[in-house]
Amino acid sequence: MTVDTPDTGGRGLRGYLVLTAAISGCGVMVLEMAAVRAVAPYLGASTYTWTNVIGVMLGALAVGYFVGGRLADRLPRPWALFLLLVAGGLLMGGLPFAVRPVARWLVPADIGMESALGAVHRASLLVTILLFAPPTLILGGVSPMTIRLLAARGMVGGAAGQVFAASTAGSLAGTFLTTHLFVPMLGTRLTIALAGALLSATGALGLVLSVRGRRALPMAALVAALAGVLTMGVAGAGPIKAREGQLVEVETAYQYVRVVESGAPTVRFLMINEAEEAYQSVRVEGTELTEGRYYDYYSILPLLLGTPADGSLDVLVIGLAAGTIPRQLQAFFPAGLSVTGVEIDPGVLDVGRSHFGLPSEGDWLRAVVGDGRVCLNGLPRQPTFELVILDAFAQEVYIPFHLATREAFTEVRDRLRPGGIVALNSAGYRPDEELLTVLASTMADVFGRVYRVAVQGYPNYMLYAVRDGAPAFARLARPTGLPATPDGRKLRDLAAYVAASTTVAATGGLILTDDYAPVERMTDSAFRRESHAAMGR
Q1: Sign (positive/negative) of CA torsion 111, 112, 118, 123?
Q2: What was the pLDDT predicted at 369?
Q3: Given its phi and psi angles, is residue 29 left (phi above 0), alpha (psi -120 to 50 degrees) or beta?
Q4: Mean pLDDT across the stretch 168-191?
Q5: What distance in Å separates the CA atoms of residue 389 and residue 393, rounded to the nearest whole number?
Q6: What is the mean pLDDT of the chain?
Q7: CATH C-level class of 290-534
Q8: pTM
Q9: Percentages of the chain per state (helix, strand, coil), in multiples of 5
Q10: Is the pLDDT of residue 144 over 90?
């Protein structure tokens, strides 16, 4: 059997083939890292979305390796490789135009939160298969074709080593640069478009180098023009999600953030990723309260504490967001107030300062950028706080599992002064919700008795516990020290409701641990059941 020996030209073209492998590897990882960011505004960035993206793209690479290997044996020519790279780059450059219509087709904007949670899991799988798998499959074929072209004179091992090393080096560059540089500076869409343009340009130049004469010049010019048009189109594409009343749209290093306002009086919401109904901070015009939303319930907790002997009120808020909670506490309990707020995303803090009245660092507020559990673990292990509020959410609706475990609540207890309170909000449609029971059981394992109150008019429950004591409900029934203002009177009424409606939370069953905490599954189950009930199923 005669083996067709590819003509790879001189050392210059061989070196360019190795560079091609590196650029292809970079492009694959840019696409994989940016894929979740691209779909997050419509489908979220949950564990399920990440799993779908990684799984589909690994599958596409596997198919690409196989097909590319077969093609390399049938057509071992440099120009075939470079045409493949051009095709992958142009497909990749066109992705930013396709994500929104396909995602909106699969998950309409008005689907409702209960139905959306189940739909987005399926939709993220389909979007990845339809849009991101094809260019990934094509790029998967680059490595075997490059190895075949470089494996002259039987040096297959050396060629494979060169290609794998270059491709992996490119992948490392694509991984770190996408997260730390390109997306924060350029945004997701432009990052994908520029990566596609780089792949296309690499392929076009390779055609010029590998095809002797002027035959490749018109094709290379056409490729460059198409890549340029796609990139400029993405750069001028306007907002990712246009909506009436939208004030801000920004991609931070972590997520996609919007500020939207509506109604009269005007209500301003901080929304993250795909959220259309869920929000992470809220501010109502003309008041520090939030029209009965769960944030207001945190504001009555100092009444349960009474007045500490030293006149201080030291509060830890994990999940600071745009600052709704500390702003309310400062409005009603300014004397001796000291708030330490933890927020993982500095971009959210910037939005909070510019659009939600989050004050800059001062005598009473300290904003810490970091993961809530990591910051909690890093605090001195001594009683410091009268009040710890856990209000962090991942992917809009999920309590981060590592903040809901026995180990996490133990860390909280060790930082609470005797009589101090820990409180959290959980989504829930009925008091026997599995997630509520499990959260209460886990808290009770550390604190003893846990208390629960339903948030009027919203699918939320507040859970709270006291270190070495019990809530002073008499203080809620007859609150003192509140301002004689409309807000003060509303908060007094809310305190009376909480005093009359709080019950000891039901416990039993699973205790969440750092090793096993299926919070996402239980949350999805609650929303799925509510969706089925709404549809009469």
Answers
A1: positive
A2: 92
A3: alpha
A4: 89
A5: 12
A6: 85
A7: alpha beta
A8: 0.83
A9: 55, 15, 30
A10: yes
